[in-house]
Amino acid sequence: MFPGLVLAVTALASGADANWPQFRGVGASGIGTGNPPVEWDGESGRNVLWKAPIPGLGYSSPVVWGGRVFLTTSVPASGQAARTRLGLYGDIAPVEGEGPQEFRLYCLDRKSGKVLWQRTAASGTPKVKRHPKSSHANPTPATDGTHVAAFFGSEGLFTYDLDGKLLWKKDFGVLDAGYFQAPAAQWGFASSPVIHEGVLLVQADVQKNSFLAALDVRTGKELWRTARNDVPTFSTPAVAADAKGGKQVVVNGWKHIGGYDLKTGRELWKMAGTGDIPVPTPVVGEGLVIITSAHGGGRPIYAMRAGSGEIAWKHDRAGNYMQTPLLEGGLGYFCYDNGVLSVYQLATGERLYQQRLGAGSSGFTSSPVAAGGRLYLTSEDGRTYVVGLGREYKLLKENELGEQVMASPAVSDGVLFVRGRDHLFAIGAK
Known about the structure:
mainly beta; four-stranded antiparallel sheet; disordered N terminus
């Protein structure tokens, strides 16, 4: 039996809150505000409010606070474009021979896309190699409206104010999140920081000395650090409330899916999974905590009861590899790497439908987002499928961005902020 969890992620703000402060937005829900357009075209500019060039390579998502958008990237000092290889394949070898990089944080004006400021947090040859489908700027920044935390894994954690003043930085040493069965296959670090009520959380499941840590977001002082006995994983932690009014940090894992007390870091509950390279972030809704993964020995979906932590239902061969699922209106939306969308009734685990998006030739890495009664799912080649939310499949539109897309979009006040290979796009009605 696990300590109880309540219905909602406690980071959730009011429904009117248009800020998108972390990976997948408020509480990692993936649900935004407003009414984004159903159709657009990146090349013709239809319903593209602006697009801003972003140098280098980064798969972090944009975050939005007020009139500002924040984004990280890694810029090769040579000026040459970083090599990438997208699509559906199983090669594990990292990219070799990359030179020095500049690890940057950008702040853009929300309305115009103008760069308000940019800071080079660190520079030098990356301490860890990356996968061909990865980058040296994978973690999404986090902000609470006062601080902006940019995490570059082995290059360090850097926290700024909203005007770009560096407040503090912390070096965690080398964080090698490669394939545990082939340690030479370094893949880069991906877990994003989370800020909750003045506490900055970092999950570092790596080859050696994995941990979960909490820092004071104002000063960088380490409040606690709890060791984790797990292999490298790539998931971002979530914060939830328990039945007694306390807070706990919920994490995905292979050997250690679990919950930790937010104040002390004390382990509250633990269970083992079957997918051995967990990536999706835990999500909460309808009285359930949903945790999924898909690699190695299993592809599970675990639906745990919020009140007791017991497993309400599970599917052993239905989980996601890369994408964090989305929960809305009593339904769970899961999109696989090959573009197969599966929708489940959260109360029972019954699958309502399964539908392939596109021809199956493109990979899907970006996690889905929703707003205005619609689901937005974007493939690696930049095609977004707009699907009506509900128990039956209804494809509303397919839209071309004109650039590759690996990052998950942000949604704020009816605007989709989509990071392409070379630009950040603001998509809204015009």
